[in-house]
Amino acid sequence: MSRAPVVSIVTATYNRSHVLRHAIHSVLDSSFTDWEMIVVGDGCTDDSAACVDAIGDARVRFVNLPTNSGGQAAPNNHGIELARGRYVAFLNHDDLYLRHHLASCVATLERGESDLVWTPALVVHDLQAAAQTGSPSFSVAGVPGTLDGRYSPFAFYIASSWMMRRELAARVGPWRPEKALHVSPSQDWLFRASRTGARLTFIPHVGVLLLYAGGRPGSYAKSVSPDHDVVRRWLVEDPHCLERMLEEAAINAARQTGYELFHNPRKAVVRGLAMPVYALLTAIGVHPFSLNMAARHRRRGGYIRNHQRTTGARR
Question: Residue 77 sits in which domain range?
Answer without folding.
Answer: 7-311
